[in-house]
Amino acid sequence: MRGGVAGLVLFLAVVLSGHAGAEERTIRIGVTPVILKDQSGFLDAWRDYLEDRTGYSVDFVRRGSYGEIVELARRERIDFAWLCGFPYVTEQGSVELLAVPVYDGKPTYQSYIIVGEDKSDTRGMEDLEGVVFAFSDPNSNSGWLYPETRLHAKGLNSDEFFRQSFFTYGHRNVVEAVAEGLADAGAVDGYVWETLKKRGSGLTERTRVIERSPEFGFPPLVATRAADDEMRARFRGALRDMTDHPGGRDLLEALNLDSFVDGEDAWFDGIRELSRQVSRDEAPGG
User: Fold this and answer.
1) What is the pLDDT of residues 244-268, one digit of tens each?
2) Would 160 be classed as within a structural domain?
3) Are 214 and 110 in contact (CB under 8 A)?
4) Whole-number Cα distances in Å, 89 to 52, 96, 136, 151, 232
5) CA atoms in the 13 A half-sphere facing the CB of 46
6) Which of 18, 88, 109, 158 is the most buried if burial means most Cβ atoms within 10 Å?
7) Is the four-CA dihedral 81, 83, 86, 87 of positive or negative sign?
8) pTM of the entire structure?
């Protein structure tokens, strides 16, 4: 009898210690200022919400570009990341779709080509030959891939078409560069431009949209190989439940998003097709 009790105690100790270890594990989420700008206060609030809903500690791993986040995902140094659809479709050996934001009733967004508001004669990409052009990130669909494929269809690339081009590593930075006259035109995530406009930013008043792309799958939340099934289920559930939780709804409002849904890989077929048309080596400096 004594041996049986001792065995039970040992069994419970092993089970409970393993359970505690799982709860103490930290979720590492890669983010960049390409989408989230001025993110410290928001990320603090999002961390509190996610820790409460998942039972895990949460660490936001911040880097300056999508490329740096992709490298962390490949090396399994992060568990999740908020990426653009472009690296999602090209890095599917390293990441898997976890959730997709819903914006303005749809899980999609557009690339905007913008110019300074004073350039009234500029009507489309064709009028931008010889200008200074701002891209957001070489791993961004809206901020590089889409406009580059527009040029590629005409047998051109950005080095040939523009007098000069550069990366700002943030969609807000693109809007600011065009508004301040540092660039004549730029490519930006339409969601970011519309959100700046909704928030009353003077930057959008000093820019004008001359072209909108087709709809593409919204930049998704992805899981890396480092995230186990339990972590994925809890994180996905916490994202889905944001609409049902007062704190979650406040965070969605801050992001100007409706919700997060599980998403479908087919939503990114448009980006996948564009990615087959050009190489990142064609990016300025590539």
Assistant:
1) 999 999 999 999 999 999 999 999 9
2) yes
3) yes
4) 31, 9, 18, 21, 19
5) 18
6) 88
7) negative
8) 0.88
3-state secondary structure string across 193-261: HHHHHHCCCHHHHCEEEEEECCCEECCCEEEECCCCHHHHHHHHHHHHHHHHCHHHHHHHHHHCCCEEE
Running DSSP on this structure, what letter comes out for residue 142?
A: I
Q: Are strands 216-217 and 164-167 parallel, antiparallel or unpaired?
A: unpaired
Number of folded domains that form the chain: 2
Residue 129 forms part of a structural domain? yes
Cβ burial 269-285 (10 Å sphere, 16+ → b, else e): ebbbebbeebebebbbe
Residues 6+ apart with CB under 8 A from 171: 34, 35, 37, 136, 140, 142, 143, 188, 189, 192, 193
Q: What is the pLDDT of residues 14-53, one digit of tens each?
A: 444 444 444 578 999 999 987 666 677 899 999 999 999 9
CA–CA gap between residue 212 and residue 192 (Å, rounded) = 13
Q: How far apart are CA 149 and CA 234, in angstroms?
A: 38
119 lies in a domain?
Answer: yes
Asked if residue 277 is part of any domain, the answer here is: no
